[in-house]
Predict the 3D structure of the following.
Amino acid sequence: MDGTPKWDNAYPMFAPKTKNINSSLDYIYLAVNSYKYWCQVIYQLSHEISHCFIHCNEKDGDKLVSWIEETICEALSLYFLKLFYENYDKTDLYKLDKDYKDNILNYLNDILKETGNNWLKNCSTKEELMEINNTSEIKREDRKSEMVELYRLLDDENIKGLIKYRDYIISGTKFLDTYKYKEAYKNNEVINYLCELQENKL
Ligand SMILES: [Zn+2]
């Protein structure tokens, strides 16, 4: 298609129109083995569309903090896999393959079986947190167990506050204003948990 940005890399990505030189559209790129590998499509699309939700809901600026955003998008992709599994009978895919449902659950459980190294939870300084931030897309194991914990706390109500995290990043820093964020979303377990991950660093 004319104007479509070229994408040669072997990994999925959300490309907002603000970064697309020759196009006025937002794009999501997938890197799937096959479009018939529905579990992988759901998983990747959920992750990238979560980046899109966050981007579109940001009030102003571009205050992305990678460790936070990747942890949220990874947790949401698991949440959407589970949602898809639970509602599979209502989807159009069900009409094509009535027996596929358990594959989605198996795919989700395989991801949940992988273990992390607990570094995000256990690191004690902001410098270490920034190390995790700088490698957040290549060393996902540093945040894996914390991401799973976040996923387990998710429900259809508390998600909305999570999507708004960028509005609570202190300008010019890579840190949340956790007081303001928690005040805006009182008794929101996922936001409390996310804030705690930053707050216990000196
Ligand atoms: Zn991502």
Q: What stands out?
A: Residues 63-199 form one domain.
